[in-house]
Design goal:
about 55% strand; mainly beta
């Protein structure tokens, strides 16, 4: 059974930075693409970024491109999201997710079958 545990959220002023981590267990981490999604109050969960199994390919939603960086350490079974120049619109609960299929990764919620519990990120103006 896959377990994903996020950490690193918090309260930060606009323009600040945070680094989220997601510790994974239960499946061979290095075989699966990973992603970050977020959900703001009253809104649906939306895609933020994905990374393939090796870390060689990444993809971002337009609003975070150039500010956020997704990365992974397969030796530590850990996924990261470095968030710089944070804006109030980035306020949300951030979730990490693992791809449904080994050696594949997508950007839709349906492409992922394992989810963490989420970590709150709040950006004040």
């Amino acid at each position: 059974q896959v377990q994903l545990v996020e950490s690193g959220g918090g309260l930060v002023q606009a323009g600040g930075s945070l680094r989220l981590s997601c510790a994974a267990s239960g499946r061979t981490f290095s075989r699966y693409g990973m992603g970050w999604f977020r959900q703001a109050p009253g809104k649906e969960r939306e895609f933020v970024a994905t990374i393939n199994w090796s870390g060689g390919n990444t993809y971002y939603t337009a609003p975070v491109k150039g500010r956020f960086t997704i990365s992974r350490d397969n030796a530590k079974n850990t996924l990261y999201l470095q968030m710089n120049d944070l804006k109030p619109d980035d306020t949300a609960v951030y979730y990490c997710a693992q791809s449904r299929t080994a050696y594949d990764v997508g950007t839709r919620r349906a492409d992922f079958d394992s989810w963490g519990q989420g970590t709150q990120v709040t950006v004040s103006s």
